[in-house]
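User: Here's a structure from my thesis project, written as structure tokens. My advisor, Dr. K., wants to see whether a designed sequence matches the one we expressed. Can you design one independently, without my sequence as a hint?
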């Protein structure tokens, strides 16, 4: 039997047991699209940017559940290691999560955790900073990725200013490029430092609606879903529209609807996603939201 509606690992997975196929479907999987591809190319430019006194910075803005973290993870996958003349493995990119409140010590501790460097979280900030400088220099890191950057707004104006001052100083000392990813509030956060904000170029992740790009996304996702029959979710409006509307404009919700619909199809002994299945999945998701 031909499975020309599938690509890559899905071509093999479609022959697995229902249980294994469900596990495969529920795994995170990268799906490329125009805006994401452009941003990944920009990440590569930042990695290759020559070290100087004023390194470039980028703000990636998007709604919650719209693929920001996955985008950062994909950057790491594309640039996991790079060789050096001394035959030591160097890390090109480091991702860390912005602390839940703006604090210099907690910022340094989060970076050290990402670097897998043992440290006392309550140590003096200057000691934590020294550890960061040593390890980043040793690894040859060229790009820092800060996820959930809007977290820095969870503090007083004075703490926010100190946090940004510490971050700016760190970037200047390390001479690395920097990416801040978060909701639209990161623009407000960066504006706390009028000089620092001028370094940032802002790129936005799209909201997903009834357009060609979204239909292309649906088609790409279907290629990775190991069902024996073609569901044709991108071309059948009876299926596409409920998925798009149910997804409420975010790639995370759209992907979740498709995945849960595929799992339901397997459990029901079917081999494709239907309108009835999608309607049932969307209704269940909405009911969970109301209950929460």
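Assistant: Designed independently from the structure alone:
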């Amino acid at each position: 039997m031909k499975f020309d509606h599938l690509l890559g690992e899905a071509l093999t997975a479609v022959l697995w047991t229902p249980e294994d196929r469900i596990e495969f479907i529920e795994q995170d999987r990268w799906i490329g699209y125009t805006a994401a591809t452009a941003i990944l190319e920009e990440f590569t430019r930042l990695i290759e940017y020559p070290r100087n006194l004023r390194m470039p910075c980028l703000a990636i803005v998007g709604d919650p559940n719209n693929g920001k973290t996955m985008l950062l993870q994909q950057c790491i996958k594309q640039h996991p290691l790079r060789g050096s003349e001394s035959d030591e493995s160097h890390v090109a990119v480091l991702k860390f999560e912005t602390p839940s409140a703006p604090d210099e010590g907690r910022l340094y501790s989060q970076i050290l955790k990402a670097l897998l460097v043992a440290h006392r979280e309550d140590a003096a900030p200057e000691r934590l900073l020294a550890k960061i400088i040593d390890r980043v220099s040793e690894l040859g890191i060229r790009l820092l990725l800060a996820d959930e950057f809007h977290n820095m707004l969870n503090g007083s104006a004075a703490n926010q200013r100190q946090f940004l001052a510490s971050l700016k100083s760190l970037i200047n000392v390390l001479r690395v490029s920097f990416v801040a990813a978060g909701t639209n509030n990161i623009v407000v956060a960066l504006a706390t430092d009028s000089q620092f904000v001028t370094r940032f170029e802002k790129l936005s992740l799209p909201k997903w609606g009834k357009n060609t790009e979204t239909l292309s996304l649906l088609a790409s996702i279907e290629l990775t879903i190991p069902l024996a029959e073609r569901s044709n979710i991108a071309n059948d409006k009876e299926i596409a529209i409920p998925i798009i509307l149910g997804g409420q404009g975010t790639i995370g919700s759209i992907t979740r609807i498709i995945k849960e619909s595929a799992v339901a199809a397997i459990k029901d002994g079917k081999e494709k996603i239907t309108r009835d299945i999608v309607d049932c999945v969307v209704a269940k998701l909405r009911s969970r939201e109301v209950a929460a």
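When you compare it with your expressed construct, this may help: The chain has two domains: 34-204, 208-285.
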